[in-house]
Structure formats: structure tokens, C-alpha cells
Design a protein that fits this description.
There is one protein chain. This protein is α+β, with helices and mostly antiparallel strands and 146 residues long. The protein has a single domain (2-144), classed as Gcn5-related N-acetyltransferase (GNAT) (Aminopeptidase). It has helices at residues 10-20, 27-35, 79-93, 108-116; strands spanning 2-4, 39-46, 49-59, 62-70, 98-104, 120-131, 134-144. A seven-stranded mixed β-sheet has the order 1-2-3-4-5-7-6, with helices on both faces. A hairpin with a 2-residue loop joins strand 3 (49-59) and strand 4. Helix 1 crosses helix 2.
Length: 146
């Protein structure tokens, strides 16, 4: 089930983010996103357990996926696609017709997800992501929602 996330979810979001990203965000970052009226913060729940979430920043007729994450034990089950689709629909409903995102070049599963969802690569940022073993390019994608 997809539903908006609220402040009581921020601690779990931070824990999930730490599992999925080398440079994770603290609880306060998620609370700030939830308190920002420009940000759409939605989660995927299986029963009462938060299994994944997406944050989208909407600015007039454009939007950007800030982060999307699915708990490792629930990956490969279509949850990321469901979250992305819900974010697209809600973004379009709020007047944005184009959605941007960026992804690390070495995140092959995410790139496949975005390509399957008809996102087109529109640029790159060389050496954008810092890793413990060096730097990785960011690939920029976009999708026209209507």
C-alpha cells in the first residue's frame, strides 16, 4: 500500500537509507523533507511495515526525484516501480509535467528501473558521487509525464 509518510516514519527512513547508501542521511533530513511543502514523501507499506519510499521535490511544472529506496529484503518485487509510478501520478496531479532524477553510473538495477519506466538519459556529472574507493559519475534522466 502506498501512503504519505509522516514524522514518526523518519527514524525508519534513516535506517533504510543507511542500508542502501554509503553516504546516508540522518533522521532530521527526512523530517525536513516532510515539513517542506514542495516535497512529496510517500512510502510503500506491506501490512504495517515500511518497505520503501520516494521523495520528490515539485517546483511549478517540473519535479525531481530526490531519493528512492526499497529495503534490501523487498527488492526485485516491483516495489520501486510501484513507488516511482505513484510519484509520477501525484507529481502530474500537482501540475508538474516533467520529472528529473540522477543515479550513480554503477547502480545498474536502478538504471534498468528508470529505462524500463521510459526515462531518457539527458546528461551526466563526472565524478559526482564520492565512494570509499573513489568517485562515480552521476547519470541524469528525465521523463515527460504527459
Amino acid at each position: 500500500m502506498i501512503k504519505p509518510l509522516i514524522l514518526c516514519h523518519s527514524e525508519h527512513m534513516a535506517a533504510l537509507h543507511a542500508q542502501g547508501f554509503e553516504n546516508s542521511w540522518p533522521k532530521l533530513d527526512f523530517e525536513n523533507h516532510m515539513n517542506n511543502p514542495s516535497d512529496l514523501v510517500i512510502g510503500y507499506f506491506k501490512h504495517t511495515r515500511l518497505c520503501g519510499f520516494v521523495i520528490v521535490r515539485i517546483q511549478y511544472d517540473q519535479a525531481e526525484v530526490i531519493t528512492i529506496l526499497v529495503e534490501e529484503t523487498h527488492q526485485g518485487k516491483g516495489i520501486a516501480s510501484t513507488l516511482l509510478n505513484a510519484a509520477e501520478q501525484q507529481t502530474l496531479g500537482q501540475g508538474a509535467y516533467i520529472l528529473f532524477l540522477e543515479v550513480a553510473k554503477d547502480n545498474v538495477a536502478a538504471i534498468r528501473l528508470y529505462q524500463k519506466a521510459n526515462y531518457l538519459q539527458c546528461g551526466s556529472r563526472p565524478g559526482y558521487y564520492r565512494r570509499s574507493n573513489g568517485r562515480v559519475d552521476a547519470l541524469l534522466f528525465q521523463k515527460h509525464l504527459k
